[in-house]
Amino acid sequence: DTAVSQTPKYLVTQMGNDKSIKCEQNLGHDTMYWYKQDSKKFLKIMFSYNNKELIINETVPNRFSPKSPDKAHLNLHINSLELGDSAVYFCASSRRIGLAGEGGELFFGEGSRLTVL
Amino acid sequence: KQEVTQIPAALSVPEGENLVLNCSFTDSAIYNLQWFRQDPGKGLTSLLLIQSSQREQTSGRLNASLDKSSGRSTLYIAASQPGDSATYLCGTNAGKSTFGDGTTLTVKP
């Protein structure tokens, strides 16, 4: 059983389209994340949800909208896709982030490679 | 703002060598530091997690150390094998995770 699973694994689309990536974890974690890894392999956090509540929202264009229907799922919807959105998007999860921000071990999905033409 | 640097960016060694990968960070107020392995086209696989109160962690041929006061962590790989070839990333957690750019390791048979 895959601990953190993302779909789709590959996504090729035209500029201006809207697309979604789904993520599910079966680890019983309370906290889930979206990361973006660009062509230079730099990995940067985008969003973090703790038990369905948004707790980290980095400087991400509002074309990106995460949604957490329950604590085991975190989806990412992207509107009006641009060339610069091409990247690999990783979902991750960890045990609950405490009041002081401490968190447990991060577990990553396999990534969703988005190519915008 | 936390900045994480990994040196070297790339490393090539013959099989059997022991090696050290370095990770430095600017904000020592971290809760933990995690080392990952990333194979081409794949996700990140967790190797070792060191909590802020710990000095080191070991798993098999891997040993990671943490010195918060100097803002440094090292990942020691003993008796390297071709299967160890991958990109190794370190990530610090200080409320949110910040990652280095990684060290790409090639172990030649």
Topology (SSEs and partners):
The complex is a heterodimer of chains A (117) and B (109).
Chain A: E1 4-7, E2 10-13, E3 19-25, E4 31-37, E5 43-50, E6 53-57, E7 64-70, E8 73-78, E9 87-94, E10 107-108, E11 112-116
Parallel strand pairs in A: 2-11
Antiparallel strand pairs in A: 1-3, 3-8, 4-5, 4-9, 5-6, 7-8, 9-10, 9-11
Chain B: E1 4-7, E2 10-14, E3 19-25, E4 32-38, E5 44-51, E6 56-59, E7 62-67, E8 72-77, E9 86-93, E10 97-99, E11 103-108
Parallel strand pairs in B: 2-11
Antiparallel strand pairs in B: 1-3, 3-8, 4-5, 4-9, 6-7, 7-8, 9-10, 9-11
Strand content of chain B: over 45%
Radius of gyration of chain B: 13 Å
Structural class call of chain B reads mainly beta
Number of helices of chain A: 0
The stretches of 5 or more residues of chain B where confidence is low (pLDDT under 50) are none
The total count of helices of chain B amounts to 0
Q: Write down the overall geometry of chain A.
A: globular
Note the run of SSEs of chain B as H and E.
EEEEEEEEEEE
Strand content of the residues of chain A, in percent?
A: over 45%
Distance between the termini of chain B: 41 Å
Ends apart, CA distance between termini of chain A: 34 Å
Biggest β-sheet of chain A, characterized?
A: 7 strands, mixed
Task: Kindly state the number of beta strands of chain B.
Answer: 11
Q: In terms of quaternary structure, what is this?
A: heterodimer
Order of helical and strand elements of chain A: EEEEEEEEEEE
**Mean pLDDT over the residues of chain A:** 90
Share of helix of chain A, binned: under 10%
Radius of gyration of chain A: 14 Å
* Biggest sheet details of chain B: 6 strands, mixed
Arithmetic mean of pLDDT of chain B: 94
